[in-house]
Amino acid sequence: MKTSRRDFIKTAGMAGGMLATGGLSACSGSGDSSSSKNVPAIWDISENKGKQVFNMSGYAAPKIDVIKIGYIGIGGRGMAAVKRMALLEGVEIVALSDLKIEKIDEAKAYLKKLGMPEPKGYADGSQELWKEMCDKEELDLIYIATPRDLHPSMCVYGMESGAHVATEIPAARTLDECWSLVETSEKTKKHCSMIENCVYDFWELLILNMARQGFFGEIVHVDAGYVSNQINTNLNKELEWRTREFINRDGNIYPTHGLGPACQILDINRGDRMDFMVSVSSADFTMGKEIEKRAATDDYYKQFIGQWKLGNMNTSTIKTVNGKTIKLQYNVSNPRPGTRIHWVIGTEGTAKKQPTPSRISYGGKGWVSDEELKELEEKFTPPIVKIAGDMAKKVGGHGGMDFLMQWRLVDCLRNGLPLDMDCYDAAAWSSIVPLSEWCVANNSVPVRIPDFTRGAYKTNEPLDIAMAKGGGSTKIKTTIKFNDDYF
């Protein structure tokens, strides 16, 4: 039974022919939830990982005056990250790894234009050359911007090589991979941070600061999601890894843009934790037809006919140990405007991000006027935005949140501060991927969300991104001259 469960969890898609009765144990009311013989079982598909080795929550690694960075993956996201990071003081980009030498040459040319030392390049078409970079270079931070299936192995190898790691999202696709990130981070005392840019959206930070100061009373629920019309992107020939990432999977396979800010405002892993979830997917009504349409004129798409399984809309409901709830939605295959939703509901007030305009309500009234909203924004704009918001807007990247994210990462490492997103966040937020897939494949029965902190969440202190405590010393290099097309 134990071997069957482990093998099942390791399956990337978490779907297939195994139903709720096959090799899994039902746990009714286990963990921190109240139990009752009258409630349905909550299925636990994660194995007990024992005791915590070292608590990485709130851990402040030794200060690093000049951070030596190596990049793995210099594609679209990776190249943009290199360009933004190059603008910061206290950063030295020493190595670049990619399958394509032309990508490394492009990054080198950009850095040369800025007058920066040329980094060493690792590119020969080998899938494993990044390991040579990790082994040979003395790196403080490894920045991972590769296809998603590579993230966990690169994170583990990077930490074991002696570097902190920061990875694009999600950090893992299976529960075993989630646990490997946690266990390696605790063992090495190296940060494993999933760089979730939406946590640094100016509105999300404003509402987080207001919540921290009790403006909304007790936060009881958050609506979150990721809705984006990506029909063409996910069928792009040049991005075939994306097509194969989606083709045989059904669940929420990209949860963290909406979930990250929701977890931050609910103190997940720092006083509360996600306990269990239920996930439901609609059928697919668009992508299969689109593949057939394209296959009629392009043989490339014939290989995907009849294979698309991801439903148009996935809706997951999450309950926390402390009784809070999150509604998390995911839709990338309908022609609808993009939204992360982000409705925050408290006992004394509510805030909504989208549909725009973003609004705030409190005291039993309707949405506040534009004038009052401006006053609230002036009063509650958090210190991190006051410190680095102007430079973030100047540099850009999803309205500035991409730059703010990288500035904050560098500033924390240089000042010896805990990171805003640690290994427990990376694991918990990413675990929604395999758990939602399992839940959808098993008639949407409730499934337990592992406690990756192994009990430490009860005493972990809330981490307040909005305050940027003790930091703020990292500046944009004064030698950089901006123009509208500097990217």
Give an account of the 3D structure.
By secondary structure, the chain is of the alpha/beta class. It is about 35% helix and about 15% strand. The protein has 14 helices and 16 strands. The protein has helices spanning about 1-10, 75-85, 100-115, 130-135, 150-160, 175-190, 200-210, 240-245, 255-265, 285-295, 370-380, 385-395, 400-415, 425-440, and strands at about 25, 40-45, 65-70, 90-95, 120, 140-145, 165, 190-195, 220-225, 275-280, 315-320, 325-330, 345, 350, 360, 445-450. The strands form 3 sheets. Strands 15-14-13-9-12-11-10-16 form an 8-stranded mixed beta sheet. A 6-stranded parallel beta sheet has the order 5-4-3-6-7-8, sandwiched between helices. Strand 3, helix 2 (about 75-85) and strand 4 form a beta-alpha-beta unit. Helix 12 packs across helix 13. The radius of gyration is 22 Å and the shape is globular. The protein starts with a helix and ends in a 39-residue tail after the last strand. The relative contact order is 0.17. Mean pLDDT is about 90; it is low at about 1-35 and about 480-485.
Q: Major sheet: order of its strands?
A: 15-14-13-9-12-11-10-16
Compute the average pLDDT.
89
Q: What is the percentage of strand-forming residues?
A: 15-25%
Oligomer: single chain
Structural class: alpha/beta
Helix content: 25-40%
How many DSSP E strands? 16
Number of helices: 14
Q: State the major sheet.
A: 8 strands, mixed
Rounded to the nearest angstrom, the distance between the terminal CA atoms is: 54 Å
